[in-house]
Fold this protein.
Amino acid sequence: MSSAGLVLLGAAVGVLSALMGIGGGIVLVPALVLLFGQSQAEAQGTSLATIPLGAIVAALMYHQSVPLRVPVVAAVAGGFVVGAYLGSRLIPHVPVEGLRLAFGVLLLYLGLLFAFDLRPAEPVAVVVGTAAALVAWLTRRGRRRTSPSGPSDGEHEYYI
């Protein structure tokens, strides 16, 4: 892994996060896996360790023009801490294939919601979410059937 490449990736993720208000992990995790060869768990851990630093800087800059609601920030942060603890305890027990599939489905679902300006509570959004999960599952299943045999030692690589 080249340090310059990682710094450029970090800068790109920071710009996208600040401009779009996205969690940097949406960009950072796939980039670390696909471009820098990290495992899914390594990429997620790296994302969780680095994103808060940039997010704090961006939040302070936003606060200069749009005051943040401190009670909302505190409530979400409290929930985030509990959820992050629980998720990090569960990660060793989740198969990599399932984790990648879930991550891909989430990205696809959120992308469709944003692209078509849907709200998750709308009935069509539920259909879109179900369709996204089905497409991801069928794609994964079809790729397994048509992919050439992997290495004979039982090792497999999985891509989003």
